Amino acid sequence: MRRMREPTLNPSPSPGDAVHATTCYMCACRCGIKVWTLEGRIRYIQGNPDHPVNRGVLCAKGSAGIMQHYSPARLSRPLLRTGERGSGEFKEISWDEAMELATSWLAPIRARNPDELAFFTGRDQSQALTGWWAQQFGTINYAAHGGFCSVNMAAGGLYTLGGSFWEFGEPDWDHTQYLMLWGVAEDHDSNPIKLGLGKLKARGAKVVAVNPVRTGYGAIADEWIGIRPGTDGLFAFALIHELLRSDRIDLEYLVRYANAHWLVVRNPGGADDGLFARDGEGRALCWDRERGAVDANAVDVAPVVIGEYTLPDGRTAVPVFHLVADRYLDPQYAPDAVAERCGIPADTIRRIARELAAAAFDTKLSLPIAWTDSWGREHASMEGRAVSMHAMRGISAHSNGFHTCRALHLLQLLLGAVDVPGSFRFQPPFPKPIPPANRPGKTRRPDGGLDAAPLGFVHTPEDLVVDAQGAPRRIDHAYSWAYPLAAHGMLHTVIRNAWAGDPYKIDTLLMFMANMSWNSAMNTSETMQWLTDKDESGEYRIPRIIYSDAYASEMVAYADLVLPDTTYLERFDAISLLDRPISDADGASDAIRHPIFDAATQPTDDNRPRDVRGFQSVLLDLGARLGLPGLVHADGSPQYRDYADYIVRHERAPGVGLLAGWRGEDGTQEGKGAPNPDQLKRYIEHGGFWHTPVPEAGRYYKMANRDYLQWAHKLGFVANDQPIVMQLYSETLQKFRLAAQGHGTMQPPDRHRTRVATYFDPLPIWYEPFEHDETSREAFPLSAITQRPMYMYHAWGSQNAWLRQIQARNALYVHPATGAKYGLAEGDWAEVDSHHGTITVEVRFAKNVQPDTVWSWNAIGKRRGAWRLAKDAPEGTKGFLLNHLISDVTPKGDYANADPVTGQAAWFDLRVRIRKSDQAGESAPQFPPLPYREADERPLRYGAALRNLEHPGKSKPNASKT
C-alpha cells in the first residue's frame, strides 16, 4: 500500500509581519477586529480584545472575512450593459467613462426635476453620507434598507421611549435576573448578546425566549415560548392584563418618568378629542389632589391617575393611566381569552406575569450611586427592576409590528423597567426627544437642495410628503397617508412603483448593495419582470438603473451601469453616531474602517488587478461633477478629495462631524470641535475606535438624569438638557386619527380615512396580520417564516467559501406531527403554496418549531450563476427562498404588504399550505442561469502556502488557490 506523504507542520507559525486594527463588516454587529497580514496577504482575523463592542469575541462570520475579501465573486472594474437588461451581458469600461456616463444621466435630472432620481441603499451603514447627498441633489426619493428591516421597531420605540430595541439599547447584563427575548434571531448585535447571555447564565438568571422557532439564543434559554407568528402583541396584552389585575405595577415610576398622569380631553366628535389638556403656555396638565389642573411636569404635584375631571374651561378629561387600565383590563385580554390564538396555555401566561412581577418588585436591587434628576432632586441610590426585554425582527416583520413593539414598551413601563438598574438600557446618543426633532425634507432651497434630509420623523399630518390632493409625492409612498410614519422609507415598494409610474415616472434608479432582484425582494418573479419590462415604444419602463456592489449578486444583472465597490478591508468607513451607533449603555463609541490593502494589489483568479472604488468616494466624486451644493467650492472644484477627507472635514453643524473622537485642531476635544486633520490617524493609533464613558452618576435614568443629559448635550446628542417624558399614550397618533375623523387642514383622502382612524390608535392595539384573516387561515393553515443562522448574514455571507462549509443549502423545517398530518416523511420533497405562488422544497423534520409554523434559513438559496458559484452549486439547485411566495401587496391588492403605520415590510405574515410533491431533487422555481464567469471548480483553499512559514519572508503565497 502506498504511503501518503505527511506534510511538514510548524506548530508555532509566525502570526504575521503586521497587524491592523479595524472594524468587521460581516454583519451589523460592527465588532473590532485585528487583521494579521504576512507579506501583503491576510494570515488570520481575530477579535480585538480592547474593542468596546465585542471585547475580543469573534464569530464564524468575522473569522471568515478572509474569504469575503478573497471571494471569486468580487467585481473588478466598471461594467456597461451590452445585452438586454437581466441578461448579465456587459463590457468593461474605465472609471472615467463610467463617471462621465453617470454624470450625463444625472445632470439633466438635477436641472429638470431632482425627484426623477430614486436613490435607494441597502446594507450600507453610511446613511450619514448617502442621506446628506440625496438632500444636496434635491430628491425626496431616498431611502435606506431599514424600511424592510426594522423601521417599525425603531419608530415604535422612538415614539414611545425616545430609544428602541435593535442595536440602540441593551439589557442590563450585569444586574437583570429575568430576560425575555422577543423574536430575536442570531444576527444583529450578536457578539454583545452572546457575551451578555454568558453573564446571565453564569449567575443563574432566567432567560425566556418568545419565538415560533427555537434556535440560537432560544436553544440556551431556560424556557421557550413557541408562540404563533404575529400574536406577540396579544401575549403582551395578556401579561399587562394580569399585572394590572393583580396591581403589580410601578405607578410612581409611571408618573415620574412617563405621561401616565397627563390629562386627555374627552370630547367625542370634537377637534380636541384625545389630545392632551394644556395650559396657555402649551404645558401638559395633570389633576393634583389638592389644586386641580396644574403643570404635569412640576416637581411638587400629587397627581391622580384614575377618574374623570372637569377642566377650568369646562371640558372633561381623564388621566392617561385611566385609559390604559380601562382598555387592558378588558376580559378580551385575559389569558384564557388569548391562549388559543397565541398557542400559549393560559396557565403559562399567568405564571410568566407572576415571574415578571416577582423579578421586578420582589428582588431588591439598589446600586449605591448618588444621582440628581432633571428637577434637581437628589437621590442617594439608584433603585432597580431586575427584569429586561429585548426584541428584534420576529416582532418587526409583521403588519402589526409597530403596535406590537409599543405593547412591549408599555409592558416594560408598567414594570418600571426602562433604564433603571436591571432593566432595558438606552445606549448613547439615545434617548431622544419624542418624537425626534428632524422631520422629512419636502421643499427645495434656492440652490436646489432639500430643506432637510429626505428621511425624518413625522410629528403631525402637516409633515407628510403629499400633494394638495393628499396623494403621495415620493416614489415609494413613504410619508403618505398610506404609510405616514415611514421613518426609513420603503425600499420594498420602489421597483413596483417606478415600473408603474406611481405617482410619476422616474428617470434613474440608483441603488447600492440592495439585492432587489432576489433575496431582498417580495414578489421575486414579478420584480425581475418589472426591472426588464418595456413600454409600447420599446423603452424600459424604468429607463436607467445604476447599481453599486462589491460582488456579482443577482441584482448586478439588472443594472445598466455597474460601479464596483471595494471590500471592507480596502476602504475607509465611518461607523458614526450620526448613523447607526455602536455605543453601549455605559459609554459612547464610534469607529472607522481603514484600507489595509490596495485593491489593485489583491490577487484574483484571473490574475488581473482589480480597478474598484469605495462607493462613498464615488458618490462624492459624482456630486462634485454635478456641482451639488456642499460638494464643490465657489470655483466649482471638489470640496472633498474622497470619503476619508469628507469624514474628517465635513460638519453637519458647527463642530459636529461624522466622528466624535479627537476633534479640535489639536485633537483634544470630543463630541464637538473643529475638524482635526489628523483625526483618522488618531483613530488608527487607538485601534480604530473612540470610546468615552458616561459619567457614573448618569448611567441610569438617562431620560431624566441631570448628569447624563448635560453630558449628552455637551457631546451634541440632544439639543438641550430637558427631561424626556416617555409616552404611554401618543398624541402624535391621535392627531392623525382626528384628521381621519374630519378635523384639521390636512385630512386623508376618503380611501384612507378608515385605515388611518383604525391603526392610528394612541394606545397600543393588536389586530390580525393582514394575511392572517380567517379566510386566509382556512385556505393556508400554516405560517411560514425564516430564521438567520449565526454563521450567515444576508446573501453575501452564503457565497463565502468557509461559511458554505457549514451550510450550502437549506430545507423547509416542519414539526413531525405536522409532517404526519400532511402525509410527509423526512426527506420528502413538497410543494408549498401561498396566495401568491408555489415553491418546491425538501422537507426536514424538527421539533424546535411551533406546530402550525414551518420555517427555513434565510437567504441561502441563490439564482444559478450568481455570486460566481459553480453551475451545480447546491445553493442554486436545492436551496430556495420563501421570498417567491411573498407578495409585495396584501391579498386584497389595495396596499403594500406592510405595516399601515410605518410601511415596514411584513415578511413574516406569510401563510402557506403544504403537500407532497411528485418532483424531487431540485428546488423550484428555477430561473435561467446568469452568465457570470464561473469560478474555478477546484476547492477554494486558503493558507496552505503560509502553513510552514517559520518567519516572515521565507516564501511568497500567490493566488487565492494557495
Low-confidence stretches: 950-962
Strand order of the largest sheet: 5-4-25-24-23-6-7
- Helix % is 10-25%
| Count of beta strands | 34
Strand content: 15-25%
Give the CA-based shape.
globular
Q: Structural class of the helices, strands and pairings?
A: alpha/beta
What gyration radius follows from the Cα positions, in whole Å?
28 Å
Distance between the termini: 29 Å
Rounded mean pLDDT is 94
Counting H and I runs of at least 4 residues, what is the number of helices? Answer: 26
Major beta sheet summary: 7 strands, mixed
Characterise the protein shown here.
There is one protein chain. By secondary structure, this protein is α/β, with parallel strands linked by helices. The protein contains 26 helices and 34 strands. A hairpin with a 3-residue loop joins strand 13 (285-288) and strand 14. The chain is globular.
In short:
By secondary structure, the chain is α/β, with parallel strands linked by helices. It contains 26 helices and 34 strands. It has a seven-stranded mixed β-sheet with strand order 5-4-25-24-23-6-7, covered by helices on one side.
